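Sanity check

After download, print the first record. It should look like this:
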Amino acid sequence: MGLLDFLRHIGSQNEESSSGTTPSSGPALPPTSPIFTEPWREISWGDKQTGLEYVQDYQPKKEGVSHLRVLLYGPVGSGKSSFINSVSSILRGRMAIPAAVSAATSEISFTTKYETHEIEREDGFYPLVFNDIMGLEDGPNRGVQTEDIKLAMMGHVMDSQQFSPASPLLNGCAGYNKNPSANDRCHILLCVISANAPEIKESVLGTDLGIPQVCILTHIDEACDVTESNLKNVYHSKYIKRKMEEMSSSVGFPMNCIFPVKNYNEEKDLDDDIDTLILDALRYIINFGDDFIKKM
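Expected structure tokens:
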């Protein structure tokens, strides 16, 4: 099973999540703490400004490249559009919803077009562009075609191109960019997975798509009680660590390329802890994507 097939598979499941224990048919075990005493990954809580300035100061230094393009993909309802909105809100200093969002329980992709999202700043736009695509769905003629993801990655898909679950975009069709520039290409893939996804058991090898990939684990507050009670528990949580280890061993992402985040959903105002997690992930997305740009 390839990575994209696997993501479609977990997107079609509807298992209930747990807060740190796995159901078992055997006798009940004594309760254990759902958290580690010491964090298993360090993060600078309370230092949001440093992460914010890192993103604000970023500028590609490669001739012919004016921005870093991030392509998001993953199962329906995993939080791709919500992540774009959350990043935009943090960088603009207020709630923003540039990307339309579907319900997390939806089985059908709300995004049907290849959508480009730029983030405004006082002097124009940030040199960080996000592209959202149709979600991966299980079953024939459902969700985005694997070939369309590859075409988008190489810059062959024009903005606002409508995706067809029945067939990929073909050379010569309207919406096909025959001669993509370095700016049209995607510089990093961002795989978005919900922490509510079923336990990962298969041995899955990720496809080598030729550009760096990072994974963000969303809905961590819904999947883990200790994280819901206090977001700062995320790197103390045994459940979150286990989900990340499952992703690492089964899908092929190194642990240092997986970042748990909480997207903005019910909140009306910005929250420093939510911002800190997202900005931490964004720093590495920029670093890995910029490394690729330098090698182009």
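If your output differs, re-run the checksum step. Summary of this record's structure: Confidence is low (pLDDT under 50) at residues 14-24, 200-206.
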